[in-house]
Amino acid sequence: MRPFLIDTDAGSDDAVAVVMALRQRDVDVRAITTVAGNVPLGQALQNARYFVELCAAGAPVYAGADRPLLRDYVSADWFHGADGLGDWGDRYAPRGSPAAVGHAVDVIIDLARAHSDLTIVTLGPLTNLALALRKAPDIAKRIDRCVIMGGAACTNGNVTPAAEYNIWCDPEAAQIVFRSGLAIEMVGWEFSQGSFALSLADIEALRGLGTPYAQFAIDSNSKGMRGYEAQTGEIGISLPDGVAMAVAIDPAICRRASRHAVDVECASDLTRGMTVVDKLGVAADERNHPVWRAALQAPRRPSICWELDAARWKAMLFRLLG
For the chain, what is the radius of gyration of the CA atoms? Predict the structure, then answer.
């Protein structure tokens, strides 16, 4: 069993990603930590508890940061709905399973120190992880993998022309994380469009599975489907968090990746939250050192996913929702 910690803002695409992890047989979700992002913290905590109930799982759910480090909090409810799950009233409210006692930051630190093979998957703003790294810098070298759904590598964003929402929401936190030396695998927002989005035929086929997981996945993303069409002109369901979780579960889904220095813009209003990837190695950054592993105190460079296997991702999705 592979130990996972999932940090989530529990919107509609997060829902699919968390259900995938909870239903993957060789993944042990040791904890789910919640953060303000798509919806306020209280709603994220409630949603994540429902995900666990739906899967009859035992993963504890913890509350984390209720606001960005320095910025005013801005939700994404226009896309996900006020409840983050398409505004279905109390249909997807948890019936029991209270939140676990403890704070997300401490849980991240404790699990990182307890498991040498821990995978952290972040599906929302990086506030909790940044606070954990500030409190316990040693965990950066202890975490085996940190799969981040966030950013837009050398392409357009989804909340501004330059930035993806998770990074834009708390750019200072993202900057801390990307500079920390964590073994980051960045799966950008770009892998939620085109062939990666669920087509109308995909949606019909998922409904045909007749499972509560598939039904929930489609229904909770119904509002997001309309938002995706308004934003891109494409008809379908965009699941960036699901794609990132697929990479976390099966790294072979990432067909092409390379390591680069990455930084996050915090000072500019125009490019706030932009993930600046030094793809050509032109910046004077020690993370571009040709023998960077041997460079004194040089942090590890993030791995950027450039090409993913869309068919393999969708096959996994159907298997785990079936």
Answer: 18
Indicate the SS3 state at residue 15.
helix
Cβ proximity of 11 and 38 under 8 Å: yes
| Burial (CB count <10 Å: 0-12, 13-18, 19+), residue 211 | middle
Alpha helices in the chain (DSSP H): 12-23, 41-54, 77-80, 104-114, 127-135, 165-169, 171-178, 200-208, 212-220, 222-232, 240-249, 310-321
- DSSP secondary structure string, 203-217? HHHHHHT--HHHHHH
Contact 312, 253 (CB under 8 A): yes
Instruction: Look at phi and psi of residue 272 and say left if phi exceeds 0, alpha if psi is from -120 to 50, else beta.
Output: beta
Q: Give the CA distances from residue 27 to residues 133, 245, 295, in Å, rounded to whole numbers and listed in that order.
A: 24, 11, 35
**Other C-beta atoms lying within 10 Å of the C-beta of residue 203:** 19
Mean pLDDT across 58-86: 97
CA 75 to chain CA mean position, Å: 15
Predicted confidence (pLDDT) at residue 120 exceeds the cutoff of 60 = yes
Percent helix, strand, coil in the chain, to 5, is 40, 15, 45
Instruction: Point out the least confidently predicted range of 49-58, 106-115, 256-265, 292-301.
Output: 292-301
DSSP code of 84? Answer: S
- Percent of the chain scoring above 90 in pLDDT: 92
Nearest 5°: the CA angle 230, 167, 117 is: 120
E strand or H helix that includes residue 62: strand 61-63
Find the distance separating the first CA and the last CA of the chain, reported in whole Å. 21
Helices (H) and strands (E) in the chain, counts: 12, 10
Rounded Cα distance between 284 and 276, Å, is 14
